[in-house]
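This week, look over our next protein:
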Amino acid sequence: MSRLRGLAGGIGLLIAGAAGAQDLQGRDTAGNWRVTHYSSHGIWNTICDEREEQGALKRRCYIRWVDVYAEAPAFGAMFTFVTPRGGAGGRHDVMFGPEPGTAFAADGFRIDRDGRTVWQMQDRRCLLWADCSLDAEESAAVLQAMQQGGVFHFEFTGRHGRRFNLAWPLEGFAEAFETYEQQWRQRQ
């Protein structure tokens, strides 16, 4: 189990590359980012880090979870990131990262609370082609649902033809989000 968590943590650092973690020479690596805040809230991690870029300090904060649901050789993982949206207004971007080739069931990407579905992914780019970077409106809707708790369900067929049913508890997400916003405000 600790090996799996270590692998998930390592993957999480690599996936942070999707949030801009190239080194200063443009290579895809965690590079020289220095962690300035790390906290766990249930399965959700709130992280802030920084590095020097061309003489200026670049800072970032995000929430992440990485679920390694299948080990090698038919590896499979899914992640989510919450990051600040550029510009003013306190908005946030949400990105989910299913493996390329993932095909979700018709109602297989949803949040359930108290026995009923309270949010469901409608974006066909995500459901059919695993392109799950949400726009401002979609991000706001899913964040509101996530903060109210419940369970995130993902039912899909992976790129290797196996079926999966993941359940991510949203317990702790509201606290992770509050910490993330607080930490980000301190760094602006």
The beta strands are 34-41, 44-53, 56-70, 76-84, 92-97, 103-113, 116-120, 132-133, 151-157, 163-169. Residues 2-15 form the longest helix (14 residues). The domain at 2-186 is CATH 2.60.40.1880 (Immunoglobulin-like). The radius of gyration is 16 Å.
